[in-house]
Structures are given as C-alpha cells and as structure tokens.
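Hi R.,

As promised, here are both runs. First protein below:
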Amino acid sequence: MNNFKQKAIRGGVAKMCAQGANFSLRIGSVMILSRLLEPKDFGLVGMVTAFTGILSLFKDFGLSTAAIQRSSVTEEEISSLFWINLLIGGVLALLALALSPVVATFYGEPRLMKVTAILATGLLFNAAGVQHAAILQRDMRFTTTASIEIAALALSIALGIAMALSGYGYWSLVAMTVITPVFLSTAFWITTKWIPRRPNLKTEIRSMLQFGGAVTLNGLVVYIAYNLEKVLLGRFWGADSVGMYIRAYQLVSIPTDNLNSAVGGVAFSALSRLQHDFIRFKRYFLKGYSLVLAMSVPITITCALFADDVIAVALGPKWKDAALIFRLLAPTILIFAIINPLAWLMFALGMVGRSLRVALVLCPIVIGGYLLGLPYGPKGVAFAYSSAMTLWVVPHVAWCVRGTGISFRDIATAVGRPLLSCVVAGGLSLTVVASIAVSWQPLPRLILATSVLLTVYLGLLLFAMGQKRFYLDLLQHLKPNLPVEQAQ
C-alpha cells in the first residue's frame, strides 16, 4: 500500500515536471507563431477544429477511460476495445471528409474544405493509439507517457514554426495538428510492444461499452458548452474576430489544460484503484485537488491583474486587442480548477450518470450566456462566458460531491486557503508595480509583478495557512525506494 502511495505521488510529480516542459513549449510556440502568423490564420483553423473537435470526442467512445476505471481487464477485452476504437476512428475520418464542403459553406470560406479534409486524418491516427496509451496509464507508467507527449509536442511545434517561416501561413497550424497523433500513436505502439489480437465477439465488454458511452456523451455535452462560442463568433464576426478570441482563449487554457493533464491522469488511475477503500480515496483526492488549486490560483490572479503585459510579452503588439478578452476570460482558470477535478471523483466512483446530468444543466447555462454576449463581439462573449461559469460554480460543486463522502466544506476549505493567500499577494504585487514600475517595459514589469506575487503567496500559503507540512509530505514520498515504473 505504501508502494502504491509512493508510485502515485512520484508519478504525479513526474507528470507535473513534464507538464512544466509542456507549458514552456506551448508558451514558446504561442510567442513565436503569434508573431509569424496573422489572427486570420488562427481563426481559419480554429473554425474547423471547433467542428472536428466534436468528432474527436468519439475517437475512443470512452473505452480508454472504461479500461482504466475497471479493477481488472483481460487482454482479450483490450484487443476487442482496440478494434472497436479503430473502426470508430475510420468512420469519423470518413464523416469529417464527407462534411468538409458543409463546413466551408457554413462559414462562407472555401479554403476550409481542404483544411477539414486534412484534419480528418488525425481522427484515425488518434484511434490507433488509444488502448496502447490506456495500457501505459493502467500500469501507472506516467513518466514514459509524459516523455512521449513532450516529444510529440516538440516535434509538432518545430514543424509548425519551420512551415510558418517558409510562408505556409495557416497550413503550418494544420500540419501541427495532424503530426501530433501520428507521432503519439507510433510511440505508444513501440513502447508498449503490445500487438492486439483478433477481435473476440464473445468477450464480455458490454459494461465497458455502457460506461464508455456515458463518458463520451458527457464529453460531447461539455465540449459543446465550452466551444460553441467559437463557432458562433466565426459565423457572425469572421475569421479575424474569432482568431483574436481563440488566441486569448488558448493562452488562458494552457495552465488549466496542463494542470488537469498532469494531475488528472495520475489521480484518476490512483482513485480508480482505491474506489473500495474510502478513507484513502478521500485523502488522495483532497491532496490532488489542493495541489491543482494551489497552482491555479496565482495564475488566475496574474492573468486578471496583468493581462496587458502578458499579451504584450506572449503575443506581441499586433494582438493588443486580445488583452481585454484575456482579462475577461481569466476567472475561468480558477473555475475550471475547482470543477474539473470533480470529474475524477465521479468517474472513479462510476458515477457517470450524475456527471452527465450535471453537464446537461451546465450546457444551456453557458450557451445562454454566449447568446447574450454575442451581439457585443468577442469581448461580450468572453464576459458572458466567465459570468455564467462564476454563477454556476457553487451549485456545480454541491451537486457533484453530494453522497460521495467529500463534503462541500472540504472543497471550500481547499479553495479558501490558496485564494485568500493569493488575493493578498496580488494586491501587494499590484501596489508595488504601480509604485515603481509603471513606466517599465512589459517584460521586466511582468517579471517584477509575478516575483512579488509568488513570493508573498508562497509565504502565506506555507506558513500562515499551515500548508508547509502538506508539501513536505509530498517530498518525503519522492525518495527512490521504488522504481517509478515498476510493473504491477
């Protein structure tokens, strides 16, 4: 049991380190590509990925999640799931190809037909590596998985930058999107050395199909809720406006995506193994939850207070109109840090039905906000998005934790400590910047602001809020008593 705890913590730290590299690579690519390409280039590709993203939700039909969540799974079952995934991926690729003229017509942009057709191939490559990635995750080989993901990201970014420098415009973004699943699936196959058997129709996988179907439907509803505004902006405001919004949205989403990917994969695997040991289950969940929040809160405050400098440094002067959009979207970093981990809780406990019901209520609330903000363009949509999510967060938490043994008070306590610490730190940082650095250039001013904020925040969190022992406990379990990827 102690070995399990150590593997979970070391795997989580390995993922966090990898996501630090991921964060650096993505920020670097944002800074470089935003200066090489125009807002319209990002808008054109964003219009298509908002559509193909819906299809990509079906690439594994939730079967990788189902395979990880099960206490045990046979090789015959994994093989059957692989062939189902591959079939689904092929059907989705053909569907996207067939609908490419429809996408071009909907937006009134003929160039999108070829873009959609090429992006469709990524759906098939994604499906080919789903179960191989699930095998690595079930074995808690998080360091290996993270290394592959970092290599794939670095390769795609290098290709995109090279093509942008050569004048390929938006096609550099298309190439980045397609090459990533090709590399990932190839690397997963080589690493696992697992070759699927012939499908066995007599294998009992009905329960996993039901679980996976619920997970997929849940993901579809959530995806629509969080991405419909990009379709609406593209349709009614054009490529330039949606490009400006998407770049601000992506910059805001990078911290959320990285943290959720780093901690979420480890947490879901570990919690699934502990679903019948509630005391340890609760302890592991709250520790992972607290860690995500502790890292998300300072990012939220920094983006909200210093949005102009962040945009100037990350994107460059031609993107200055994205600063207000970025600031208006900043609250969603904290909101997603609060609500996303609750999906680990419900999925690990097999409560996919409740998760789906929560999503079905969330979706119309957020879409209603988009529609109210749409007449005012990207800024109106950003404000409406954050407002809707802020109003929904408390009911969301209360509904998700009901009957799980995790109380609303547990969640409020986990949120309150870092939030209070960072509000104080943010106020002090803003005061320092206003006093001595108003005339500075954006980069040194941002460095000063974040340095003051993080120093004060960490001091308050570790000592005033009594979190020092929590992080010392994490470090204690990093001692190399056990190989990180020891086979189970």
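And here is the second one, sequence first, then its structure tokens:
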Amino acid sequence: MLPQKLAFIDTETTGLSVRHDRIIEIGIVRVEDGKIVAKYKSLINPQMHISPFITNLTNITPEELENAPTFYQIKNDIYEMLNGAVFVAHNVRFDYGFLKSEFSRVEMNFSLRHFCTAKLSRSLFPIHKHHNLDSIIDRFGLKVKNRHRAYDDAKVLWDFYKKLQKSIDLKVLEKHVNYGLRHPSRPNKLSDSQFENLPESPGVYIFYGENHVPLYVGKSVNIRDRVLSHFSNDYRESREMHLSRQVEEIETIKTGGELGALLKESQLIKSMQPLYNKKLRNSRRVIVLKKKSSKGTYDTHFLEEIMDISADETEDILGTFRSKLQAKEFLQKIVKEFSLCAKLVGLEKTKSACFGYRLGTCHGACIGRENPLSYNSRCIIAFSKNKIKPWPFDGPIVISEQEDFGDIKDFFVVDKWCLLGKKSVKSENEDFFDKKDYRFDMDTYKILISFLKDSKNQKLIKQIPKESFDNFSQNSIIG
C-alpha cells in the first residue's frame, strides 16, 4: 500500500554544507489520500552571507532575505506541515539533512520516514541515464513556472508522483516506493545489486563517480558494515553527503585481515589519488629533518626535500613531514619544549644570538655560551620520539594473516620497514613486488609499527632464513 500522507519538499540553501550553510527558502506540498490538503512557502533569513552564485541560480536577493523570517520564527509552522507525513524530496538526503540541521539548531527533534524521487525514478526507469529533476521534467512533459524556487520544485515532484500512479502498475509502484522507504540512505546512482554483493570480510572498498573517476578508498575489517555506515548518517556530514551524491560504483578487494587492508588502502590511495582521500593522497615528495654534527661542536639541524627515502638512510632521518609548514611547526614546538636554539635547528638565520636567547629560552648555544655536550644531549632526547625506529629483526620477516573462517590468507615479506612482497592465497588479486625495491614509505612504516606493538601479532611473524631470502622463492618463504 502506498503511503497516505506525503509531504513533497524542496529547499534552497546558501551552499552545500549541512554544517555551515543555511536554508533560504522552503516549499512544501502536503498530500493526504491523493489530494493536496496544505501548501506552504516562505523565504528564510539565513543570518549569513548569500553568494552571487546562489542569487543568480534562484533569483533570491540578499535584500529579500533581510526582511524574511528566521527559521526560528517559522519552525512551528514547518513542523506542523511535515508532522506525521512521509518526507519526499529529490535527492532527499540533501533536503532532509538541512531541515534536520535547522531543527537541531533550535533544539527540536526531527525524524520522519523519507524517500527520494530521484532514486524512485532510477529504480523504475533504469534504461535512462539521467534522473535529475530537469531530466524528469522533460521526460514526462511536466510544467514548472519557476525552476530552482522551492515551492515550484516541490509542486513538480507531486506532479511527477501523480504521473507515476497513472502510468505504472500500482503494485510495481508500491514495491519501489516501499523499498525506498526501507533503504533511504542508499545513494541514488548505486544499484541494489552492488549493496547485496558487499562482502562481510576484511578488505578495501573503492567508490567511483562519473566516468569511473575514483572518489574514495577506504578499508575495514567488515567491508559491508563500513560501506553502509558511510550513507546511514550522510545528512549530518557535508563530506559524506557530497560523496553520496556522486558515487556510482563500488569495487571491493578482500584481504586476509586488517594489516592487509591497511597496506592495500595506503597503496591504492597513492596510486589512484582519489578526490576525497586528502590525508594520504599527496605525492611521494617528502620533507625530512636531518642533523649535522662534529666532535666537540653543537649539533645543527636542517630540512631537505626528497622524492624517496631508501631503507639505508632512515637512521639519519629525525623526522618526516608532508610540508615545510608542518616541519617548522614541529621544530617550533621542540625548541620551546626542550629550550633548544632556533638558529641551530634552522628556524632563524642570523649571525648573532637567536631571538630565544634574548628572551631567556635559549641557553646560548648559538653564541657558544652553553656546553655543547649538554645541548646535544637535549637534542637527542627531543628528537628521539619522532625518529624512525631501528628495524627490530635480524633480517627480513614474513607476516601471515588470515581472519577466522576467512577464505583469503595474505603473506607479507618485510625488511627494514619496507614492504618487499605480498602473496594472497585463494585470491583473484595476486601480486608480488620486487624484493630489491627497498623504498621506505612513511605510511607503511606507521602501519607496521602499530601492528608490531600488539603482542597478539607476534605469532604471525616468522624470520626468513637467509638462503630462502636470497633465492626469494615464493614457496620457500610461504611454506
């Protein structure tokens, strides 16, 4: 049975961020038992700046909004219009998210069943590529007087729904509407089969957008749960909402466990450069901190920009950073905490005493007034925490990983914090890297450090005999 009480809604907003932007116009058409019983439209003063782009799109001017009521002033009217009805909108997570956010600001609970007309169109007419509102208006010959005005767009959604009731078998329509009500959080452009085929195992998932553009790479010990969680509360986070509106395809890669998922995620982010993975998708360019020391003199420090770190030079590196700004912020913190000299760590260029000496925070190493041994000892302590740790094994190791009842077992060959090889048994995604590629990767290092800290993982580690490693036979290493 189709819902008997429906509220067709559209909102215009100052932007796309649920957290930072506000509603500037709302339009509602309330339908009960197939008839319009109430209409509502109002401009809303967002109490913030409105951009020229939004004005050009909607023809709503800042002057009009200055004289409009605030959401607080009309909250009760809006609540009454929506109360007890099914919330219906085109790309419903957008409008529902903004209204939920507005009600939250005025400390009112707001929760309604909701479904999306864009998703309904996609499920009913999969032969069509586009299901935005303009496409639906053209496809069904609908008339709308003022496109991108809230009430007119809400009214055309009701007209679309009426058309469907006349042109689609009622049982078919009921099936698709009720499915949309049960799964409101699923992105419009993803098919049901993609969700049904999500594995409940460790691994990596990749979200693709239009033209197979990679949007996001993530990992989890349960791929299905993590993917669904992206969209269960997407109306609360602008980033998740943007992602939800763009994703058209999901690819999954199963791994033997969490370590494999972490390493695969890191590798894919670097190679695919997804739009929404900002933290790890930078290039291989890295800023390193090194020191220069001579017997009987003060240690000095300097920053160097390099493309790769070889395994043999990690002992000379006191820190790695993604930017010079991050490195300088770290040095400023260390200088303050350990009373080091800003001049000797490379933060100041001066022929005289550093500024800290004049303030009393530097003990005078910059002008030879502090014992070099005392200063250098503090430097060792200051930089030890951030320094790359020595490789704790006498040579290479192999790590085996397989989840309980899992169908994949991963083997990782590691030496000097470098991932040299990987083998997946019973996997379609088998790959093996060149053992001679001793390229140090900071993200891999951090993943392995965390893995080795857990005493439970020690049983998964096996030292590789020198003869096996020299031959680098997959069977001898894995067997």
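A quick note on the second one: The chain is about 40% helix and 20% strand. Let me know what you think.

Best,
J.
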